């Protein structure tokens, strides 16, 4: 029982980052019908910014701020440089554009920073453990869960209680009708990217706490589970994205800990992916629920 | 029909000659590393042909296609590696593979077979998710496939020895097999594009709904494209592994996907010639950037740019740049043999004959008690109507009355409807749109749906080749002549003016030799004179092929002048029917159109 | 207040509007009628900035607004109730109304929300219901209320009676009359010609993208037998 809870906490911790990325992807998809392959890059930029700030001796809380700000700015820059001109493009073009941007950013970091991971110092308290009854939890896990919960609540409040959030939800349903109401297209899309960037920044903080290093491929590494999570939950449904992310994290933990025999434990990722592939085959309707109705 | 393949065949051979020629010159002039590069380029060309066959013809963006190569690569590696090496690297390999060693040719066949099986599984997933041109689903599925494959390769160390990969694979002797394979796949690639499944796939790519209405079952052509592409990629992968003498998980993973996709996109994904141009261009570009970024070159002022990984920057930049500026790629959908057609033109009939030789059989199309509900909204309630061959029947009613919905029901686009649709007493309810088209129901769309990038002639021919088995021979040239489109037959459908586009849509619907034509606002958007001409054309065409016509239009003048009978819908219900005079004097109809008193 | 001068607009290949001239004076209720495919909705789109105008001008209160975007027009006091309503089904009734006031200062927005709820008691009652569950008539009321949230001086309505049962059409036109009495200027595109002409001060007839006739006051009666006009002309 203890082991189960332990794994659950571990899985939720893992899944939190996925959930935040997935949520960001869902927001962007809702507004632009675009699957943003470049959405992992704000995380990479955040990581390197943290590394740079750490070199200047910034305290740990400042590093977190740096990460988030860097992610938001990167996300906005991507929107501006890549997608502003492509409002009316078809899905194919949009997908490849986001792919191209992702590659460019990766290459840029490899070229101008370094291909080897850059490590930085993390505060020691992250690794302390705390006892809660029979459970031994790392402070890290608690922080992750707390931060994610706060972020999700905050995002929910933003979407449900503010005009900006309302406009985003309206635009996700019917972009042109939202424009007719007076919502400004460019601001809305930029807003969606900024919010997604914020979420990615927070996810970056969580990841960096665990990993303590910055490398060019980080964005891609985290994007993939985020993408899968968003798809499992249904690209149009934000709650689904969050659930998908958390479920993915828990599944990974579970697979690693119990389901696969030791010899195959390294096949965890493949097993999870395989499960998802089966999902695609047997329940495709449950997945891409944001199918737009065509007017014949 | 054979002559249709003549120009493409010549074109493919010429294309091959150009590519191989360029490669040979580069190899002769360069160093030994250039030699390796050229070999790689030729192999990449083969893989890109595989990509183009699928992505170009179906329009589905498959992100994981190179992953198929991983399966072929590993099979060949495992089967041809010397046993002595296997016992060192992968002694615990399953299925006794550590002790097996097989002739490379047999290994190649095995590799292709295994890959095709994998292709079938992926194909199943694609079909089940209803993936269509441009849809996100196809991309996600193939992407997931890419990553699963990579993970398995990386972690199933008993079989693959993990990231380090397998080595000591017997190498290819010289470039000849590669060069010959390239010739074969180029020919196959062009032939497929011109073949029936290829052309049908392209129609589905352009507009899935219109294709279905023209009788095309999207699954078969798309799966044909998939299998062919998988086959080609498998062969390319085998060559790659044997050229390099090793196989690792990263060979057919992200970086290779990026490389091959960039080549395809830059050149033009709808064109095989374009893809080859893309291969050469990108290879040259990457080599150029690699040299620039190397130690031997130093350009003052540009040192900040000329660093390692410049090639990746170049690739990403190329992809992004083309998407922003020229998404169709360098060559769009131009093929070398288009140019050659000047010297090998397709034979055309000098004097088109009659449109059709349809016998004077009588048919009856009936809708009985049709009901349809969309998200709680009752669009149609208990609507019944009847059309016979030779008649022209009008369907009118205020906006939102349900007219288009009724036609959608009768052409198979509304799966869960009440009531029945009967053709000569055969219940057609529940049949897919392309089956209905095969049974003799043709239609046009309210929001004009043409295969924009295909030529005028191709638009009409699609409908005909989807129906070859039906036996009714429709003369495409005669149809084009009747519509006055003979002179523009080889122009893209998107280039026509509106009136001609409407006429094209009409003759395309007619090319299925339908017993019934369902026309949804054929004069929508036309001025007075054009509408008049369209009226005459509809009447003429229907008479020629002996079809029954059900036409929706808001131009009541048009309806009254052309129709033998009229049905009137309002709020999803039939409120009147009869001859034009009866209908125009009906109080309910007047009330519906003008409002209650 | 609104003047459309020689407006021509295209949808891809089709010239949907040719040299359309019309005007609406303050306080008037003007109707635009005509067969479908005549270009009525296209005209609405062109005026509100959703569709680019290739020739001619649109003037609102003397200002040239031809190139203005929909949100700019809203801020200047011109609102549209779209064809088929286009309410946000996933949002609640109240949220729909708030969206209508997105260009308005928060205090005014709250005030207007209260006003709308008084004017449309049905909406007040269903304020937390997801708009997708409203009936056709309620949805039309919501669409109109939403447009009014921006405090417009001129309201364009595209086929307000579309898809509504006759009794509800009655309700909607009553609403339209009420609006007129409160001083709102209205330009209404309608298919239900009889109802529209009964409340209109003036009317234009649109046919294949061109204005072919105009009538006002007593003259409206001569358009009463429009069926023949549609069919015969």
Give an overview of the whole structure.
By secondary structure, chain A is mainly alpha-helical. Chain A contains 11 helices and 4 strands; from the N terminus they run ααααβββααααβααα. Chain A has one domain (2-282): ABC transporter involved in vitamin B12 uptake, BtuC. A 6-stranded mixed β-sheet of chain B has the order 6-7-8-3-9-10, with helices on both faces. In chain B, strands 2-1-4-5 form a 4-stranded antiparallel β-sheet, covered by helices on one side. Chain B is 54% helix and 10% strand. The longest helix of chain B has 27 residues, at 32-58. Chain B has 2 domains: 2-340, ABC transporter involved in vitamin B12 uptake, BtuC (Orthogonal Bundle); 364-594, 3-Layer(aba) Sandwich (Rossmann fold), CATH 3.40.50. In chain B, helix 18 packs across helix 19. With 597 residues, chain B is of the alpha/beta class. Chain C has 233 residues and is of the alpha/beta class. Chain C has helices at residues 40-48, 70-76, 93-100, 106-119, 121-125, 136-148, 166-181, 193-199, 226-232; strands at 2-11, 14-24, 29-33, 53-60, 63-64, 78-81, 154-158, 185-190, 202-207, 210-216. Chains in contact: A-B, A-C, B-C. At the A-B interface, helix 4, helix 9 and helix 11 of A face helix 5, helix 6, helix 12 and helix 14 of B.
The whole-angstrom Rg of chain C is 17 Å
Tell me, what's the shape of chain A? globular
List low-confidence stretches of chain C: none
- Number of DSSP helical runs of chain A: 11
How many distinct folded domains of chain A? 1
Shape of chain C from CA axes? globular
Distance between the termini of chain C: 32 Å
SSE arrangement:
The complex is a heterotrimer of chains A (296), B (597) and C (233).
Chain A: H1 2-32, H2 41-55, H3 60-83, H4 91-112, E1 118-119, E2 129-132, E3 135-138, H5 139-161, H6 163-173, H7 175-180, H8 185-211, E4 213-214, H9 218-233, H10 238-259, H11 268-282
Antiparallel strand pairs in A: 1-4, 2-3
Chain B: H1 6-29, H2 32-58, H3 66-80, H4 83-89, H5 104-128, H6 136-155, H7 157-160, H8 176-194, H9 196-206, H10 208-213, H11 219-244, H12 254-267, H13 272-293, H14 310-325, H15 336-340, E1 364-374, E2 377-388, E3 392-396, H16 403-410, E4 418-423, E5 426-427, H17 433-439, E6 441-443, H18 456-465, H19 476-482, H20 498-510, E7 516-520, H21 528-545, E8 548-552, H22 556-562, E9 565-570, E10 573-578, H23 580-584, H24 587-594
Parallel strand pairs in B: 3-8, 3-9, 6-7, 7-8
Antiparallel strand pairs in B: 1-2, 1-4, 4-5, 9-10
Chain C: E1 2-11, E2 14-24, E3 29-33, H1 40-48, E4 53-60, E5 63-64, H2 70-76, E6 78-81, H3 93-100, H4 106-119, H5 121-125, H6 136-148, E7 154-158, H7 166-181, E8 185-190, H8 193-199, E9 202-207, E10 210-216, H9 226-232
Parallel strand pairs in C: 3-8, 3-9, 6-7, 7-8
Antiparallel strand pairs in C: 1-2, 1-4, 4-5, 9-10
Helix pairs in contact in C: 3-6, 6-7
């Amino acid at each position: 029982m203890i082991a189960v809870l332990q794994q659950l906490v571990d899985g939720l911790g893992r899944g939190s980052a996925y959930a935040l990325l997935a949520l960001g992807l869902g927001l962007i998809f809702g507004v632009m019908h675009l699957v943003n392959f470049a959405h992992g890059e704000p995380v990479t930029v955040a990581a390197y910014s943290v590394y740079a700030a750490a070199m200047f001796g910034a305290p740990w809380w400042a590093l977190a701020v740096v990460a988030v700000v860097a992610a938001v700015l990167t996300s906005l820059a991507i929107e501006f440089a890549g997608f502003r001109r492509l409002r009316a493009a078809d899905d194919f073009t949009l997908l490849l554009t986001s792919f191209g941007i992702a590659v460019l950013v990766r290459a840029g970091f490899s070229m101008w920073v370094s291909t080897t991971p850059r490590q930085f110092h993390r505060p020691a308290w992250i690794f302390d453990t705390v006892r809660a009854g029979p459970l031994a939890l790392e402070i890290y896990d608690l922080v992750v869960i707390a931060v994610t919960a706060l972020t999700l609540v905050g995002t929910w409040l933003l979407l449900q209680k503010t005009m900006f959030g309302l406009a985003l939800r309206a635009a996700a349903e019917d972009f042109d009708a939202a424009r007719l109401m007076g919502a400004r297209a460019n601001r809305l899309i930029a807003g969606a990217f900024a919010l997604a960037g914020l979420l990615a920044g927070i996810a970056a903080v969580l990841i960096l706490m665990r990993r303590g290093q910055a490398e060019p491929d980080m964005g891609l590494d985290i994007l993939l589970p985020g993408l899968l999570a968003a798809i499992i939950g249904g690209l149009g449904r934000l709650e689904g994205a969050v659930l998908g992310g958390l479920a993915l994290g828990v599944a990974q933990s579970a697979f690693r800990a119990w389901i696969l025999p030791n010899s195959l434990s390294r096949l965890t990722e493949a097993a999870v992916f395989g499960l998802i592939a089966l999902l695609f085959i047997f329940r495709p309707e449950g997945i891409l629920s944001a199918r737009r109705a065509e007017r014949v | 029909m054979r002559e249709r393949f003549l120009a493409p065949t010549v074109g493919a051979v010429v294309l091959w000659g150009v590519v191989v020629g360029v490669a040979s010159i580069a190899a002769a002039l360069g160093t030994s590393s250039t030699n390796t590069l050229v070999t790689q380029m030729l192999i990449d060309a083969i893989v890109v042909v595989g990509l183009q066959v699928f992505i170009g013809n179906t329009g589905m963006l498959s992100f994981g296609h190179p992953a198929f190569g991983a399966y072929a690569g590993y099979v060949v590696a495992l089967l041809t590696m010397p046993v002595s090496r296997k016992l060192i690297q992968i002694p615990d390999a399953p299925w006794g593979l550590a002790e097996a060693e097989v002739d490379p040719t047999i290994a190649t066949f095995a590799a292709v077979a295994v890959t095709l099986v994998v292709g079938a599984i992926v194909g199943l997933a694609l079909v089940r998710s209803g993936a269509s041109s441009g849809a996100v689903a196809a991309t996600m599925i193939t992407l997931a496939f890419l990553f699963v494959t990579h993970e398995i390769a990386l972690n199933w160390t008993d079989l693959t020895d993990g990231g380090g990969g397998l080595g000591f694979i017997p190498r290819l002797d010289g470039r000849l097999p590669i060069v010959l394979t390239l010739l074969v796949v180029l020919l196959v690639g062009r032939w497929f594009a011109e073949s029936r499944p290829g052309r049908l796939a392209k129609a589905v790519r352009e507009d899935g709904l219109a294709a279905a209405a023209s009788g095309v079952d999207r699954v078969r052509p798309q799966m044909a494209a998939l299998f062919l592409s998988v086959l080609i990629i498998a062969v390319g992968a085998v060559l790659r592994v044997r050229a390099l003498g090793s196989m690792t998980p990263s060979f057919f993973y992200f970086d290779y996907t990026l490389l091959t996709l960039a080549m395809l996109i830059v050149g033009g994904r709808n064109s095989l010639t374009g893809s080859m141009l893309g291969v050469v261009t990108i290879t040259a570009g990457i080599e150029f950037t690699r040299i620039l970024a190397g130690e031997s070159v130093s350009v003052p002022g540009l040192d900040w740019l000329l660093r390692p990984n410049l090639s990746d920057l170049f690739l990403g930049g190329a992809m992004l740049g083309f998407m922003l500026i020229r998404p169709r790629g360098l060559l769009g959908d131009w093929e070398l043999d288009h140019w050659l057609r000047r010297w090998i033109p397709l034979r055309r009939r000098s004097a088109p004959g009659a449109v059709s030789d349809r016998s004077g059989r009588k048919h009856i199309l009936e809708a009985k008690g049709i009901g349809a509900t969309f998200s709680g909204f009752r669009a149609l309630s208990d609507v019944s109507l009847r059309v016979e061959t030779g008649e022209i029947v009008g369907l009118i009613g205020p906006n939102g009355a349900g007219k288009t919905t009724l036609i959608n029901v009768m052409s198979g686009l509304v799966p869960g409807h009440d009531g029945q649709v009967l053709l000569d007493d055969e219940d057609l309810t529940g049949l897919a749109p392309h089956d209905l088209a095969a049974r003799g129901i043709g239609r046009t769309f309210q929001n004009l749906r043409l295969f924009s990038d295909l030529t005028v002639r191709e638009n009409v021919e699609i409908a005909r080749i989807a129906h070859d088995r039906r036996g009714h021979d429709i003369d495409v040239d005669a149809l084009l002549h009747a519509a006055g489109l003979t002179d523009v037959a080889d122009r893209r459908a998107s280039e026509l003016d509106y009136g001609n586009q409407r006429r094209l849509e009409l003759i395309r619907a007619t090319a299925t030799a339908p017993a019934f034509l369902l026309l949804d606002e054929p004069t929508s958007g036309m001025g007075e004179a054009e509408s008049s001409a369209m009226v005459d054309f509809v009447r003429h065409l229907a008479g020629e092929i002996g079809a029954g016509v059900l036409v929706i239009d808001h131009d009541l003048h048009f309806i009254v002048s052309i129709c033998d009978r009229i049905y009137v819908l309002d709020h999803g219900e039939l409120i009147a029917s009869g001859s034009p005079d009866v209908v125009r004097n009906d109080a309910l109809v007047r009330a519906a159109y003008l409002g209650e008193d | 207040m609104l003047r459309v001068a020689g407006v021509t607009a295209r949808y891809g290949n089709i010239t949907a509007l040719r040299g359309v001239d019309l005007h609406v004076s303050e306080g008037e209720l003007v109707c635009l009628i005509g067969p479908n495919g005549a270009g009525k909705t296209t005209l609405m789109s062109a005026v509100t900035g959703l569709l680019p105008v290739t020739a001619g001008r649109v003037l609102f209160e003397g200002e040239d607004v031809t190139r203005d975007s929909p949100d700019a027009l809203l801020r200047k006091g011109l609102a549209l109730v779209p064809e088929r309503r286009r309410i946000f089904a996933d949002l609640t009734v109240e949220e729909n109304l708030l969206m209508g006031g997105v260009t308005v200062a928060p205090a005014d927005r709250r005030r207007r929300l209260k006003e709308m709820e008084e004017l449309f008691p049905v909406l007040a009652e269903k304020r937390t219901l997801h708009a997708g569950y409203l009936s056709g008539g309620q949805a039309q009321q919501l669409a109109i209320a939403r447009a009014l949230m921006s405090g417009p001086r001129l309201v364009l309505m595209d086929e307000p009676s579309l898809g509504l049962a006759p009794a509800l059409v009655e309700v909607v036109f009553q609403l339209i009359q009420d609006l007129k009495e409160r001083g709102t200027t209205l330009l209404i595109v309608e298919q239900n010609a009889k109802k529209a002409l009964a409340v209109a001060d003036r009317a234009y007839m649109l046919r294949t993208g061109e204005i072919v006739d105009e009538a006002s006051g007593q003259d409206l009666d001569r358009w009463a037998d429009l069926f023949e006009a549609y069919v015969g002309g």
